[in-house]
Design goal:
The chain is mainly alpha-helical and 317 residues long. Among the domains are: 71 residues; 74 residues, no CATH class. The protein is built from nine helices and six strands, in the order βαααααβααββαβαβ. The strands form two sheets. A three-stranded mixed sheet has the order 1-6-5, with no helix packed on it. Strands 2-4-3 form a three-stranded antiparallel sheet. A hairpin with a 4-residue loop joins strand 3 and strand 4. Helix 5 crosses helix 9. The longest helix is centred in the C-terminal third of the chain and has 35 residues.
Length: 317
């Protein structure tokens, strides 16, 4: 029988620099926990940067810019006009660097991912799914349900044929010229062969997930829904079964949420409420080999060497 418990995973302290100055307001233990958390977050980012040939100097520049943006936001409500001095004090960067970074314009917002939005609607709209719940082939043109009607529900600024070409370019859909029908080739939006698009989703999804977790840590833990389940001592065959279950549950969740979100957007527009909020809902899973077990120092007490399934504390509402 698996033991259910709250699980806390800490980095091996030997991977952390031996001397770390505690920031103001943090104990040495809290500082160590902060360093461990940052190391765990930065490691996969470094893996990506090295794999794609991004030099450290470029990553360092990005980190400096992020520090300045965060400090600028934190100091925005402070009285007076000594922004550069405040930011330099908060970040540890010199005033010349802060001045350089604050004078450069902010990057433009990326365009809406229309192909991804169309894909999501196709997998969620009841009229676009078959009896098995999966997306069914659609006539290319005509009244709903058709690919043309689905595309026009997303936007009138881009021709449906252009959206079809984009889905085909990404390896997500195929058009049969004989039947003039369009079918999806994947059950998840993974733009095959488009590294730029995949990196864009990585930044958007992981960025918002991390922002939610950080906001919860800095607040009282109740600002955003952010939960996870951890289990170990599984076989590769069991992992495959779980992957299938996760995919099924995600399709069910998507099918339930997309129509609700469409209705809420329409109701907000009709009621002329300020539509100034955005929402991202995600689900992720990660699989890896278990770390090699250290040799036991002493015999385990009876009942404590069982497989474990860990669950974060329930969300507070």
């Amino acid at each position: 029988m698996c033991e259910l418990h709250i699980y806390t995973l800490a980095m091996d302290k030997r991977q952390t620099p031996p001397e770390t100055t505690a920031p103001a307001g943090l104990s040495s233990d809290e500082t160590q926990a902060l360093v461990d958390a940052l190391a765990a977050v930065l490691r996969p980012l470094a893996t990506l940067a090295v794999a794609r040939g991004l030099p450290f100097a470029s990553a360092e520049e990005l980190l400096k810019r992020a520090y300045v943006q965060a400090a600028r936001a934190a100091c925005s409500t402070a009285p007076g006009g000594r922004d550069v001095s405040r930011i330099a004090t908060a970040t540890g960067l010199n005033r010349r660097e802060v001045t350089r970074l604050t004078r450069e314009p902010a990057p433009a917002q990326p365009p809406r991912p229309l192909a991804a939005e169309l894909f999501a609607r196709w997998t969620a709209e009841p009229d676009c799914r078959g009896a098995d719940g999966l997306p069914r082939p659609l006539p290319r043109t005509g009244a709903a349900p058709s690919f043309e009607a689905l595309a026009q529900a997303i936007t009138r600024d881009v021709h449906p044929r252009s959206l079809l070409d984009e889905l085909q370019r990404l390896g997500l859909a195929a058009h049969d010229p004989v039947s003039d029908r369009v079918r999806l080739l994947r059950q998840a939006y993974v733009p095959s062969g488009d590294l730029g698009r995949m990196l864009g989703f990585l930044g958007d999804n992981v960025g918002d997930h991390l922002s939610a977790a950080v906001a919860n840590v800095l607040a009282d833990g109740r600002k955003h829904f952010e939960q996870a389940i951890f289990a170990d001592e599984l076989s590769a065959q069991s992992i495959e079964q779980v992957h299938q279950l996760i995919g099924e549950r995600w399709r069910t969740l998507t099918a339930a949420l997309v129509p609700v979100l469409d209705t809420l957007i329409a109701e907000d527009r009709a009621a002329q409420r300020p539509q100034d909020r955005r929402l991202r809902i995600g689900l992720y899973s990660y699989t890896d080999r278990m770390p090699a077990a250290a040799p036991p120092v002493a015999a385990d007490p009876p009942g404590l060497n069982t497989p474990s399934t860990a669950l974060q504390p329930p969300e507070l509402t």
